[in-house]
Design goal:
Layout: H1 12-20, H2 27-37, H3 49-61, E1 66-70, H4 76-83, E2 90-95, H5 98-111, E3 117-121, H6 124-130, E4 137-142, H7 149-157, E5 160-169, H8 185-198, E6 203-208, E7 214-219
Parallel strand pairs: 1-2, 1-4, 2-3, 4-5
Antiparallel strand pairs: 5-7, 6-7
Length: 225
């Protein structure tokens, strides 16, 4: 498991308990967690184990066939999403780091999901705006630089089918979003994004205390509230 729970409000024993009583990481996922931990402090960018199980379950539950990920890091979230897709499903991953995604590629192969994943190394905005403007994606996961969340969201939303889901990570930011004394750039960026989403009538939404906060948005059909 991660050295510290991503769910900042949970004591470590409670976090371990909930992971063990959900679908816990298998051997491949545990090795990926360990390989990521070896990168040092940056390993905290990896999603929590329970979050990965949730991504797999959610992808399967909605019958997702085409998925999109903005921010891949060492590939844990992509592995989990890909496992929730059918054999002929596809996941497009956007990231800028060859170093971190080289770790991802190795474990995708080991997990048997590499054939479902396409990785594009480029600024995510460039990748997104180059995609056809058609409502093609069933599931989107956004977990990248926080200042660009509004752009990632807008470009993803227009390419998500009605009824499709967009998941956005780190929306609680270790609780700093609710701390009036926290005024750093990233915290302010997440606050602005959260406020933007709260007023968006194109989607149904819920913010959940999963890991560091996860907002789930369902795209409404045109003309329906």
């Amino acid at each position: 498991m991660a050295d510290e729970p991503k769910a900042f409000f949970l004591p470590a024993p409670v976090h371990d308990y909930l992971v063990e009583h959900g679908t816990p990481p298998d051997a491949v996922q545990r090795r990926l967690i360990e390989a990521t931990r070896e990168l040092g402090e940056v390993s905290m960018m990896q999603i929590a184990p329970e979050q990965g199980a949730f991504l797999t379950l959610l992808a399967r539950s909605i019958g997702a066939r085409r998925a999109l990920e903005v921010g891949t890091f060492t590939g844990y979230s992509a592995l989990c999403i890909a496992r929730g897709l059918p054999e002929d499903g596809s996941l497009l991953c956007c990231d800028v780091s060859e170093e971190w995604t080289d770790v991802a590629r190795r474990f995708w192969e080991e997990a048997g999901v590499a054939k479902r994943i396409e990785l594009r190394i480029a600024p995510a905005v460039e990748t997104l705006v180059a995609l056809p403007e058609e409502e093609a994606y069933d599931l989107v996961f956004i977990d990248a630089d926080k200042e660009s969340y509004p752009v990632y969201y807008e470009e993803s939303l227009r390419r998500t089918r009605p009824g499709g889901l967009i998941l956005v990570d780190n929306v609680l930011w270790s609780g700093r979003v609710a701390d009036p004394a926290a005024d750093d750039e990233r915290t302010e960026a997440i606050r602005r994004f959260n406020d933007q989403i709260a007023g968006d009538d194109r989607v149904d939404r819920v913010m959940l205390p999963i890991a560091d906060g996860l907002t789930i948005l369902r795209k409404r059909e045109a003309g329906r509230l």
